[in-house]
Amino acid sequence: MPESPRRRPAPETLTAEQTVRLAAAAADLKHGRDILALEVRDLTSIADYFLLITAGSGAQVEAICDAIDAALSAEGIEPLHVEGKAEGRWVLMDYADVIIHVFRDDSRAFYGLERLWGDAPRLDLGTSDPAGPARPAASGA
């Protein structure tokens, strides 16, 4: 059976953690709120990190997505897939090891990914608007 093209590692320029940190910094510059990185590598095979970001309007969702795309493209990292950008309520940007979710307030509350992935350790991003206290990443034990 041929290997699925779904899970392709990002170019060797950045690790998954560096990628999520760069994306978070780009979102922070566009005033994204409640920026939260969840380390999901031990919970699922689809990614190492989920990055969750809240925006106050459809225009801000688009601005955040564009800033993330520009920052990662500058490092040679392109998304495998982007979904939901036309609607501007919940945009999913798939960078293989990092999946980025940019939500409008109501969509983030409705889907509750923080609750769904509640067992995932939180990565301290050091952004200007942290989404609550960080939990240390799980050790390899």
Any guess at the CATH architecture?
A: 2-Layer Sandwich
**Within the largest sheet, what's the order of strands?**
3-4-5-2-1-6
Give the overall average pLDDT: 85
| Derived structural class | alpha+beta
Please tell me the total number of domains: 1
- What's the end-to-end separation, in Å? 33 Å
| CATH class group | Alpha Beta
Detail the poorly predicted runs: 1-5, 130-141
Structural summary, described in words:
It is a single chain. The protein is an alpha+beta fold and 141 residues long. The chain has one domain (19-123): 2-Layer Sandwich (Beta Polymerase, domain 2), CATH 3.30.460. The chain has four helices and six strands, in the order αββαβββααβ. The chain has helices spanning 16-29, 58-73, 105-111, 113-116; strands at residues 33-39, 49-55, 81-83, 90-95, 98-104, 122-123. Strands 3-4-5-2-1-6 form a six-stranded mixed β-sheet. A hairpin with a 2-residue loop joins strand 4 (90-95) and strand 5 (98-104). It is globular. 34% of the residues are buried.
